[in-house]
């Protein structure tokens, strides 16, 4: 196994990690922005008002995107296991 193979695996792992975290992070960002906009308009500064909608939205995003996330992770893991013989010099 050479340095290029290690870098390729690390790059693919970072890309998969970014793809898997994107739905949750974007959902939290959009809901947080909307809630903070409502809070600044109404001048209602309550901590639970900003936390509860984000938690609910992130839970919904995980339910909606969970199957896709697991499928992506399983396919990445299968791809890594399939590359093991080539990385060890067997094939």
Automatic annotation (TrEMBL):
One GO CC annotation: plasma membrane
Keywords for the protein's UniProt record, in alphabetical order: Bacterial flagellum, Cell membrane, Cell projection, Cilium, Flagellum, Membrane, Transmembrane, Transmembrane helix
Subcellular location field: Cell membrane; Bacterial flagellum basal body
Spans traversing the lipid bilayer: 20-39, 51-70
Coiled-coil segments: none
Membrane topology (UniProt): Multi-pass membrane protein
GO BP terms in the entry: bacterial-type flagellum assembly; protein secretion
Domain of life (superkingdom): Bacteria
Pfam families reported for this sequence: Bac_export_3
Phosphoprotein as UniProt keyword: no
PANTHER family in the record: FLAGELLAR BIOSYNTHETIC PROTEIN FLIQ
Function, in words: Role in flagellar biosynthesis.
Family: Belongs to the FliQ/MopD/SpaQ family.
Protein name: Flagellar biosynthetic protein FliQ
Organism of this sequence: Arthrobacter oryzae
């Amino acid at each position: 196994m050479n340095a290029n193979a290690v870098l390729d695996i690390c790059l693919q792992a970072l890309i998969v990690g970014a793809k898997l975290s994107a739905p949750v992070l974007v959902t939290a960002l959009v809901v947080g922005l909307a809630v903070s906009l409502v809070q600044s308009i109404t001048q209602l500064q309550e901590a639970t008002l900003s936390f509860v909608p984000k938690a609910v939205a992130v839970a919904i995003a995980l339910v909606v995107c969970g199957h896709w996330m697991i499928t992506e992770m399983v396919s990445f893991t299968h791809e890594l296991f399939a590359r093991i013989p080539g990385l060890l010099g067997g094939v």
